[in-house]
């Protein structure tokens, strides 16, 4: 077995760690990006809070807009607009065991699809993908759908999350409590 | 007005210190609440800053019913019902905008922004018809108190001043915190869908007993002075203004702290532009006192809740579903404090909020619990022995006492049983 961390490393065919994203073929890059997004989805679905938090860079932004998809989160209300410090608080709150809306936790399964690379630089890339999330909790069953945008950065040979925007398709309407990691 | 013949004996369901669970889940009671509360009393609709220009409109609500809040071409505020009088079609499908006319997409009937019918397609078919009387439905009474727009579906009733009573002072307290005395509520609302009866929300907004438990997770991991306000030693008060309006009066605690902006968990040197503007507007002494006292925490019955840094509007959809609309309070002329108000609001409230997601979990559990048959009565005795009157004759008690819930139900019983005009 290979440790998860070393599986996360981006490698060339000869085993060397990737130092520049532009050195990979688009096909390889798409595969690595997909694997990263699937891993993030799994960590969220299984409430692996610490491992999920470790995906973020120090300058991270985690954003779920409201009332449309092109609002300015610095000037208008968003459902969620976390910097790195607030991501940390969110995770700590979930881990207290007294975040009542997640006690018991939501049962989750999500599908990430329609993954498209938007732009690639040496150490960062932008990618978009759709997410469909099935949530079951005490209130009932809820389906969430989102058009997501990500910025990933190559740090020490592996991807980190710099920016994630979760564009819920119904974010202009009343939505139920969204307390799992979306 | 249509008279509803009540099948419910409300005095058998509401006693001074306990209420019956049926009040929360019975759909017949909900229908009667629509007639006797939502489509009769003063209900908060929106704020003048949301429609600053002539022909601006925004979709609001009174109870489950959508309302177009419009500033007409003369600059007058109108509350129009979003229904074409021809075939009942929903007239406007947009959330907000600016337009000189509303045209129904079904048969092209067109109305101006004061609701009058201007014309219809193929008019020769309406020869002899008077356009008067074919305008949009209107909320019969509109009142604006310092920018807060209220509507009443009853043609007659108490004035807004009579309705607000002592609660007016808390709105004044809020506006004192603005360097210009005005709010600017244009950063958008979050809409939180909640599978629970609306009254659980109204009661919880001034329930000081719950924060230490419902919100203990966030108090543990983030610096917050909130928990102390609702501990045994707190000098903060609950107050029942009558007419269903209730508040926490946190000023005793803030005055002990004696630090400008202490109520907001910050200090004057961190918001220099705001402090400067406050000093210029009110003079240093008065500004200092305002910034020590902070903003109010008041639930204005039945649907306007001001929670220090946010404004909530509670909307009932059905007996078991409600929407909490919430936005950050923003002071006209206070850019640096406004940014902090937005950031704190986004963190704490709405569907993903550190605080409100847990409150809402409680509302939904409250609602499911209400349908369990034993015990049927819910207890509201907390603090009876230490309830007293303040210098204005309003009931007050410790910040964790149920003086507020008892006051809400006293008013509710009056509304549900008094003779209709």
CATH class of the largest domain in chain B: Alpha Beta
Give the oligomeric state. Answer: heterodimer
Helix/strand order of chain A? HHHEEHEEEE
At CATH level 2, the architecture of the largest domain in chain B is: Alpha-Beta Complex
* Beta strand % of chain B: 15-25%
Count of all domains of chain A: 1
Q: What structural category characterises the helix and strand content of chain A?
A: alpha+beta
The poorly predicted ranges of chain A are: none
N- to C-terminal distance of chain A = 30 Å
Please describe the biggest sheet of chain A, giving its number of strands, its sense, and whether it closes into a barrel: 6 strands, mixed
- The CATH class of chain A is Alpha Beta
Write a structural description.
The complex is a heterodimer of chains A (182) and B (421). Chain A is an alpha+beta fold. Chain A has one domain (4-168): Nuclear Transport Factor 2, Chain: A. Chain A is built from four helices and six strands; from the N terminus they run H-H-H-E-E-H-E-E-E-E. Chain A has helices at residues 4-8, 26-45, 49-53, 84-95; strands spanning 56-65, 78-83, 107-120, 124-136, 141-155, 158-168. In chain A, strand 4 and strand 5 form a beta hairpin. The model of chain B has no long low-confidence stretch (mean pLDDT 96). Chain B is globular, with a radius of gyration of 22 Å. The termini of chain B are close together. In chain B, helix 10 crosses helix 11. Chain B has 14 helices and 22 strands. The chains are: A alpha+beta (182), B alpha+beta (421).
